[in-house]
């Protein structure tokens, strides 16, 4: 932080803990917002020129010193470094990407003495755990391998939460799993002051009681809970809807393509140009390219999309009990629903290609294409997931690859909805959403 007493140069530049300018006290005795101090844009001023010069620094929470040397000394100690302790559960695809991004973020923050110091003190995967009992930061080098080779006694979820809650300063749990068991422990962690960041959609689309317990625990303890990547990876869908609701807008309808897997499948199976391949061949290709779950039925049953719509519907004010409370069209042939293995399912799927082919041809005769979409009508309290036919000129029909597109219809936006679109899948993109949430929590602790 830099400042000069009133004289020919009368300015105080205020920076937050990330080194960003948040205010400027200038020659006319005003405090300006960071945006104005750099661009002279929108005004955010508070006059303090009526205070005596000896008190003007104190208005800003700065204690004047007697000499320049003491000013400089105080500059270096005015904002003590804040330690934030981090525990991670899950170092699979998303988890490994997050570890890499966390290392980059830690190094960047370390360059600014006033930024928080991130100390990774616990990493857990399956039945293995690596943690620092004395809360010393674990080195990032070969961390995933070290976790796998760890001989430390595994911690239960409760023990891991207790370990983080006993940290000397603020603690954050990053859950990179899709585990319902981990999600069920969120209220316990939050009630003990441990903030949570996660892409785990099961925590927010499971029972409505769990949803209520999670946010009630966070409100009571002051711990933070962020889950941007629980819906469409790193796309700002959760934060956009949250901003709309919290600023008082009335959300009337939400609709779009909510699955990168389904988007890829139908953009290949029923493209705007050409005829596309057989349905089973497109599913097989998507599996080989990593677009589907190891068992493609976990995508084709529509439950993944239903979970995302459950989350958004709850945020929009609908008390949806579970993802099975509304119509969800499964693309698994009834004859194959009871097959035990995913491999056997893929072997049998070609026998039923005609079912999907008939639907595609029917749409083509109307000059349309098939797409798998979801919609929430807030006013009517109706939610549905399934196949719909779209004109070839419709934006949803024109999506490419695994692209997603979500439209928010609100009172403010009228007939011209706010649209969020882009890639909504992939480890790096999902991890980016998690890392972005971490930055938000750091700003608020």
From TrEMBL:
UniProt pathway: Amino-acid biosynthesis; L-methionine biosynthesis via de novo pathway; L-homoserine from L-aspartate: step 3/3; Amino-acid biosynthesis; L-threonine biosynthesis; L-threonine from L-aspartate: step 3/5
InterPro entries: Asp/hSer_DH_NAD-bd, Bifunc_Aspkin/hSer_DH, HDH_cat, HDH_CS, NAD(P)-bd_dom_sf
Record has Oxidoreductase as a keyword: yes
GO molecular function: homoserine dehydrogenase activity; NADP binding
Domain of life per record: Eukaryota
Domain annotation Aspartate/homoserine dehydrogenase NAD-binding: ranges: 90-228
Cofactor(s) annotated in UniProt: a metal cation
Signal peptide (UniProt feature, chain positions): none
Domain spans labelled Homoserine dehydrogenase catalytic: 236-439
Pfam families the UniProt entry points to: Homoserine_dh (PF00742), NAD_binding_3 (PF03447)
GO BP term (any one): threonine biosynthetic process
Enzyme Commission no: 1.1.1.3
Catalytic activity: L-homoserine + NADP(+) = L-aspartate 4-semialdehyde + NADPH + H(+)
PANTHER family: HOMOSERINE DEHYDROGENASE (PTHR43070:SF5), PTHR43070
Protein name: Homoserine dehydrogenase
Source organism of this protein record: Glarea lozoyensis (strain ATCC 20868 / MF5171)
